[in-house]
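To illustrate the input format used throughout this study, we show a single complete record. The first block contains the structure-token representation of the backbone; no residue identities are included at this stage. The design step must infer an amino acid for every position from geometry alone.
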């Protein structure tokens, strides 16, 4: 699933900070999103919801894309009443085109043509072009293969199932914006938070050793990430990760919410794994992309299973805020896990 930068005031600009292990990172310690906090901070929460990171980089662009997809790129709902290859392939072609545009475009901009140089790039290393763990020894080709062959296929399958259900009146309620405008918009705002809850617990499950070996290890080949790494997963992981969409079986939604939810979880995975915190212009961020919080997970593996929208890592003791103190705590947890029960070191 997709992440976002963890700054409590996400529109602030970060200095060119340096750390021994990173080429660049945002100011540390990483601060939690001020929505699910105790005691509550309602003004800070509202500022975050209206910020560049949330409203400007998630709701506005992905919401606009979902609306445009529904109006111009989605087969008419009456065509979806029966499972037929023509309309399903139309959706598949749309989703493949969007993935090529977003992940491919970001890769070309940041990693091929290096239009932003190293500005706000987390890891100084280039993506791997000579490693046996990747198909054809090339990280990008390997990532593209899994993203396009499995990721786009599972993404389309989930969407097609929902469109068929809408066309056959099988879902509990069809939420029309003209009849329920407030709930329509609130639902858009709530989807990233629900996806955050779902992502944490599915991700912890994927780190269960047998499932990790079977499926999740494929995603973790990428200790340094690029846009194509976001959805580079085993088909089992695609099924589990994208299953957050099933919440719409129980709650009132519109097909636009389905498109938004799936595009955020798939295209958003490409943006959040870009390897750069933001698309910047003259030193200032204009679109927030990568998450240092999740970059830490890819490097250190057993921390930061969730994303910043909900502080599950803080609540359940798996948080790494980027500081040396957090690194020492992570090493302590690892030693404790290796220590025999009742034993001493």
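Output of the design step:
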């Amino acid at each position: 699933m997709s992440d976002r930068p963890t700054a409590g005031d996400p529109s602030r600009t970060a200095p060119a900070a340096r750390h021994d292990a990173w080429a660049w990172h945002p100011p540390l310690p990483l601060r939690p999103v001020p929505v699910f906090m105790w005691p509550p901070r309602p003004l800070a929460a509202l500022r975050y919801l209206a910020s560049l990171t949330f409203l400007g980089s998630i709701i506005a662009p992905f919401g606009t894309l979902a609306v445009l997809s529904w109006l111009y790129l989605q087969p008419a709902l009456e065509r979806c009443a029966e499972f037929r290859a023509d309309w399903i392939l139309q959706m598949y072609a749309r989703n493949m085109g969007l993935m090529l545009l977003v992940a491919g475009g970001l890769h070309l901009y940041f990693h091929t043509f290096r239009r932003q140089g190293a500005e706000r790039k987390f890891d100084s290393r280039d993506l791997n072009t000579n490693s046996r763990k990747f198909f054809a020894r090339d990280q990008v080709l390997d990532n593209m293969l899994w993203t396009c062959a499995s990721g786009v296929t599972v993404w389309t399958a989930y969407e097609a199932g929902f469109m068929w259900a809408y066309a056959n009146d099988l879902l509990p309620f069809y939420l029309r914006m003209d009849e329920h405008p407030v709930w329509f918009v609130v639902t858009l705002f709530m989807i990233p938070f629900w996806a955050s809850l779902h992502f944490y617990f599915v991700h912890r499950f994927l780190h269960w050793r047998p499932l990790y070996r079977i499926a999740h290890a494929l995603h973790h080949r990428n200790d340094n990430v690029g846009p194509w790494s976001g959805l580079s997963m085993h088909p089992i992981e695609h099924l589990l990760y994208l299953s957050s969409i099933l919440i719409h079986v129980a709650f009132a939604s519109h097909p636009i919410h389905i498109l938004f939810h799936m595009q955020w979880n798939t295209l958003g995975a490409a943006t959040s794994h870009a390897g750069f915190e933001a698309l910047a212009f003259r030193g200032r961020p204009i679109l927030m992309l990568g998450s240092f919080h999740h970059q830490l997970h890819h490097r250190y593996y057993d921390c930061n299973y969730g994303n910043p929208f909900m502080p599950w890592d803080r609540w359940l003791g798996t948080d790494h805020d980027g500081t040396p103190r957090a690194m020492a705590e992570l090493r302590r947890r690892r030693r404790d896990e290796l220590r025999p029960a009742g034993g001493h070191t």
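Structural context for interpreting the output: The chain has one domain: 44-291. The beta strands are 278-281, 284-288.
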